[in-house]
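Researcher: Let's continue the batch. This sequence belongs to DgyrCDS10641, and it's 364 residues. Same format as the previous ones, please.
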Amino acid sequence: MPHIQRPSSVDDRSVAIATFTIEASLVLLNILPLLTVLVVKKERRSTDELIAALSVNDILGVLLPLPARLTSFIRKEWKGGRIACQLYQLTVHWTQLNGMCLLTLICIDRFLSVRYSIERKTPYSNGKIRIIAILISFTTLFVSCLPLMGLAPIAFKSKLCRSWLIAEASDNVQRVFYAVFIAVASSNLLVAFACNAKTVKDVYSMKDSLTDQRQVAEFSLLIAVVTIVFYLAWFPVLVIIPMSQAGYQVGRVAIIYCLISPTLTGMTNPLLYAICSSTYRKCYTAILGKICKLITGCTPKSCRTEEELTATTASTTANSVTALLESRTANDCLLEGRLGIAAQYNILKGSKLSLLSSEEDERM
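Model: Same format as before. Here are the structure tokens for DgyrCDS10641:
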């Protein structure tokens, strides 16, 4: 990794290659929830839009620092100078903080959605959620700019761009960024877990009061699982940062974990959406089915969407009904023809009887 030390050894190259592999997987996987929310799903909830925003944030967290990171890996030393190093660190820390706050907003949104569903209140508009998400992005950007104001040590050398979170502070002023970072992360952790605990409790204790209880429970469980996995990955980071600033020796493996753990959570989120939510699973299947169709020209049965299967079933049923109606129509026509012939026969028979009776009357 170029921002730890010069990647001259085989181990450093292995770490860098593994990191790039994880980041490539993150970008590809996060395209699925984006397409799910923006293209496939017909009805978008506010939580869906926040999930899409989180996916965009995770993708930007990889793509924005990628040019500097890739160049440094190829050249085996930091390239770009001090300004490039500052921009690199700014984008990394901004997307990390923004992702954390967006996840907390998702937890709050889910909590409020369940409460409104129980109390039969009109839900708030998606526009308000978008405005809050934009405000969060600007706030986390401001926090990430604190080191540029002299509130954190910017350890830069000609061939090394050191992370702001592991650089040693020389005085209390340079520790402001760490304090704010830890405070933001800790408060997000507490709020996220409190909202999830209350949401899960409400869902399972007030089943009868919820409309569409199955979907509400499934989606609430999904957000709870995503939150737990996210903070399981982040918790060691929140412990290691204060330890390093307190003067404790932190191993190189722990530092590497601190740097790649946000990438790991960004990669696992789309997988958790598919595992925990049948809706997202069906949408993923629809997207993969269309990709299969573009590549091979045909859609495998396993990749057909629910709509396509429903349409096929409906078409088959319609054809069967049409054939049945046609056969019934033919039978009805045949029956009407037979009835008509019988009626004519009866008329002729009646006429003949009338004629015979009149002849008998004349004879008498």
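Researcher: Any comment?
Model: The beta strands are 156-157, 160-161.
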